[in-house]
Amino acid sequence: MSEGNSLAATANAPTRRQAIVGVATALGGLVLDSTRAWAGTEEAISHTAESIHMEPVFKASRKRVYEALIDAKQFGKVVQLSAAMKGGMSPGAGPAEISREAGGAFSLFGGHISGRHIELLPNERIVQAWRAGSWDPGHYSIARFELVEQGSGTKIVFDHTGFPVGQVEHLAQGWKGNYWEPLEKFLA
Questions:
Q1: With a threshold of 0.85, does the pTM exceed it?
Q2: Cα dihedral value 50, 55, 56, 57, nearest 10
Q3: Contact predicate 17/38, CB 8 Å
């Protein structure tokens, strides 16, 4: 690339601030710390955002794990084995509704969890804009399920980010009791 083209590309590239604000906007709910504001704005970078990283392993193929997470009938059976059901969620709270298309909606646990699929790569990856019904309207987090072959089984490399501050313990327990433990029973 010539020096002239390099300068033109640099002049058109977003500033670091624009890039950071763009990422924060895409995550929809990144907490902004106004104590580190840029002059004339109320935006800043959070150094306290919470996230969840888990790597549960299942004795099933990637295809079987993917289908259990994306097929409404199968995930409905996972819900029946979940801590939410054991904790008193009404069996008639509504079936799992899960679109099999990127951009499609899902509604789980009687509507307590809902969102849209951002990316569906069969047997490999699921990325969702995910929210709990108790959150403020329009607040979505990102839940990412990466399915990795592990011997004859599957490890889900799971990351959950962008949820409201103070929810990390509750959500981590929910993933364990409402997804991983019942999914393990369902796949056995």
A1: no
A2: 170
A3: yes
Tens of pLDDT, residues 105-146: 999 998 999 999 999 999 999 999 999 999 999 999 999 999
| Backbone φ and ψ of 50, nearest 5° | -95, 155
Torsion angles phi and psi, residue 160, rounded to 5: -130, 120
Residues ≥6 apart with Cβ < 8 Å to 169: none
Q: Which residue is it, tokens 């969890």? A: 113
Q: Which amino acid, one-letter code, is at 146?
A: E
Instruction: Find where tokens 């997470």 sit.
Output: 69
CA 33/CA 162 separation, integer angstroms: 15
Report the distance separating Cα 132 and Cα 161, nearest Å.
13
Which 3-state string (H, E, C) describes 55-124? Answer: CCEECCCHHHHHHHHHCHHHHHHHHHCCHHHHCCCCCCCCCCEECCCCCCEEEEHHHCEEEEEEEEECCC
Cα Rg, the chain, nearest whole Å:
20
Which residues, 6+ apart, have CB-to-CB distance to 181 below 8 Å? 81, 82, 83
